[in-house]
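Retro notes
What went well: the complex prediction finally ran end to end.
Inputs used:
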Amino acid sequence: MKTPIPRPKRRATASKARPGGDTTLASPIVPPQAIAGRTLVLVIAIMTFLAGFTIAVVSVIDRAADAWASDIGREVTIEIRPLDGVAIDAEVEKAVALAQEFPGVGGARAITEAETQRLLEPWLGPDTDLSALPVPRLVIVSIDDAASFGVKALSDAVGRDIRGGSVDDHALWVDRLSAMASSMVFAGVGLMSLMLVALILSVVFATRAAMAGNRDVIEVLHFCGAEDRFIAGQFQRRFLLFGIEGGAIGGALALLAMGIAAWAIGGSAGRPGADQIEAMFGRFELPGTAYALVLSLVVAVALLTALTSRLAVRRSLSALD
Amino acid sequence: MIRFENVGLRYGTGPEVLSDLTFSIAPHSFQFLTGPSGAGKTTLIRLLFLNLKPTRGLISIFGKDTALLKRADMPALRRRIGVVFQDFRLLDHLTTYENVALPYRVLGKDEASYRADVVDLLDWVGLGDRKHVYPPVLSGGEKQRAAIARALITKPEFLLADEPTGNVDPPLARRLLRLFLELNRLGTAVLIATHDIGLMDQLDARRMVIENGHLEIYE
């Protein structure tokens, strides 16, 4: 009887290498059905969706806040209060002329009484006689070149030359908007961090459960001389696939949800309140960076899932000693 | 190659299940380990392949004191030892072929480099037509042979077999014993734990008899 052990080392050619015909090593060492993969994919998808949606919302708010700050920063307003014995129209004209001479100013325009009336209509009602009220007049000063424009110099000049005049550079609003936008971004990053921590914990629990369910596999691998990194790699491979699947589903749903939100808001044009929403958030379009961030999130979730499972396996294996 | 000095083992605070074991296993040697059920044969085998740590005494495997071994050093030593378990320990989700090829896969070898070896060995142990079958549908004897093939496939320096002929008929038992002898002739030290007096009587080999945790050796 011929004994097959050992035999001269032979180089397997394509034909000789497959005496078994369809013999292949397709089966994964860690059986997929032994891991609660569907549940984990669902958890990962939900977490990715929430994190992706947060990214998208924060991106829209951040972009809107930038637009507000930029719009407001390109204008200052000269406010002229009516004073007894002062011809306010003359002061308005003087203020326009004064502002137009300042460096960096693109133009200055007085708000007419009709425009003022329209602005106040929501509070005072139509057909109110403003001449009976001490309503200040406004001059809008557009700034073309912010670098050469000095709001302090304009403010000094207005205070000196225009009776009842003062300059509002909207700094208070810009500061508040900036603070609000920063708070939203901070809250968004905080939410995302919490979701990622929850994701990591879910993966750790799932990995431990998978290891407990595959104790026999781990034992066999150990006595076959497998190193911890080999065993961890087997689990990591499976979890990477779960991470990719869950992350892709969650990311796609987040982008879809944003698309539906944009469509729903776009579809409400002309309805009461739609103008205010557009004034606040622009056209509610996702900036390109948001798409890139959501796609990066999917990749990060997949890698994080794989890395977490690897570390969890290695930690558990070390604890076996 | 293997040296035990005054080795004792107890589980928790219980009595010692192995006491004062002192023996050596030389390279290229062949021995049987026998004794009544519950005498400690399997426990001794677990000590031999680094699955248990003794509570006292010294164990040296391939010249390394196991008490000083780091976790990272163990895989390299385990690869030099082939083990056949009484309960086979085959992975049910892998085919017979994949189970036998597992040690090569663990080593990270390319399948083309060992496929022929695995198929030849499966043919030789009589599992050539069962290589695509999963263990749950194998008979006890077939599982036994698959487990033996997995332990032999990488030609270990030391082979431990716990009741390797317990589930096979006498002709196959003799055939497997010849396989172990052939392996031994080619340089592998072999230790076979068995109850089978008939198997031991076929061979004039060293006998290690363990009883009540104590070891007697008959050269």
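What we learned: The first helix of chain B runs from residue 41 to 48.
What to try next: split runs per interface for comparison.
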